[in-house]
Amino acid sequence: MAAVAIHQFAQCITCHAWSPDQSMVAFCPNNHEVHIYKLFGEKWERVHVLQKHDQIVSGIDWSVRSNKIVTVSHDRNSYVWNQEASEWVPTLVILRLNRAALCVQWCPKENKFAVGSGAKTVCICYYEKENNWWVSKLIRKKHNSSVTSVAWHPNNILLATTSTDGKCRVFSTFIKGVDSRESGASSSSNLKFGEQIAQLDLSFTWAFGVRWSPSGNTLAYAGHNSMIYFIEDVGSSPSAQNVALRDLPLRDILFVSEKLVIGVGFDCNPMVFTADETGLWSFVKFLDEKKIAPSSSKYGSQFSEAFGKLYGQSKPAINSDTVESSRPRGGAHENCISCIVPLRKPGDTIVRRFSTSGLDGKVVIWELDGHH
Questions:
Q1: Measured distance CA(309)–CA(327) in Å, rounded
Q2: One cellular component GO annotation, for this chain's record (predicted)?
Q3: How much is the pLDDT for 299?
């Protein structure tokens, strides 16, 4: 496993997404714009700048089948962008939010997308052809704080959320006229919109980065207390495991396969978790071997560097004794990794390549070896 490409696109990146053929990448350089770069030979060139938001863009998702880009922002708005000739044309989404939109994800069938917000609500958005706009149905009064991430179940009906109230929840998003009764599992499609299937109280801290396994049998999310949680058979008879990290907290996770998860976060280095034959999850290793080396540094520098990562400093803080930093720099990422995205084509169940982006302004492409 190794980083196969490192691209310095900006000083800081809040989120990114790839085009269906993976020839273009869209990202927010920590402002109100979305920049789209295209690969020409071996050089990336900026081909589009999407300008419609007036505050930081906090979420981007690029649909694989329909080639649509959805963006959300702290300005409480969302737009769906369609490519017409050489231009990207925005369509307004009626979110009805009074706080920032924080995250967004297309559902597997791409007829809906979910938006998490600081208004303690989740917007399930769908297209109204007669009005040529996207409208939303809101899941209200379920969260006690901001919704930090959303994840669609493979059946296109169930949605998992994490929140800064420390809880992970699973809801039904069945919308009459948009979803068919056969579109998901029979038990899921018979539930009403917004009905809560499960509430997981495993973390006592902020929760981030929720994801389903490819089969939808396992749910995982991260806590700000340096824990990652794995739940099997959500809804019927759930069983939960937690893995405590000795390092800094995770911000996002990705199921590579049913038994392999990659976690990224404040340690600036992707972490690998696997499940054994009995289903027991454990931490295996860091992906970026460059950054794993013996260090003779003192505790003071380890402490100050950890604080530097937590508070977004791009360079490690050095104490008055000018000792070496706790871990050698020069790895793929130099600051907190905030986003991990699979690089796969429709129908793929196992991820061989994925990308990460973070507060150092880099997008890094990773490739897994054949053992996974």
A1: 12
A2: Arp2/3 protein complex
A3: 38
CATH topology of domain 2-293+335-367: Methylamine Dehydrogenase; Chain H (2.130.10)
H-helix segments, 106-241: 186-189
Residue 49's identity, in one-letter code, is V
Residues 6+ apart with CB under 8 A from 350: 214, 256, 257, 372
C-alpha radius of gyration, the chain, whole number: 20
How far from 256 is each of 65, 144, 270, 343, CA to CA, in Å?
20, 31, 13, 10
User: Which tokens is 4 given?
Assistant: 């196969």
* Cβ neighbour number for residue 176 with a 10 Å cutoff: 9
Q: Do the beta carbons of residue 241 and residue 229 sit within 8 Å? A: yes
pLDDT at 132: 84
Q: Which residues are CB-contacts of 237 (< 8 A; sequence separation ≥ 6)?
A: none
Burial of 222 (0-12, 13-18, 19+ CB in 10 A): buried
Question: DSSP character for 337?
Answer: E
Residue 329, pLDDT score: 46
The pTM for the full model equals 0.86
Residue 331 has a pLDDT of 82
Tracing tokens 């379920």 back to the chain, one arrives at 142
Contact between 17 and 69 (Cβ < 8 Å): yes
Domain coordinates in residue numbering, the chain: 2-293+335-367, 297-327
> What single-letter DSSP state applies at residue 4?
E
Residue at 240: amino acid letter: A
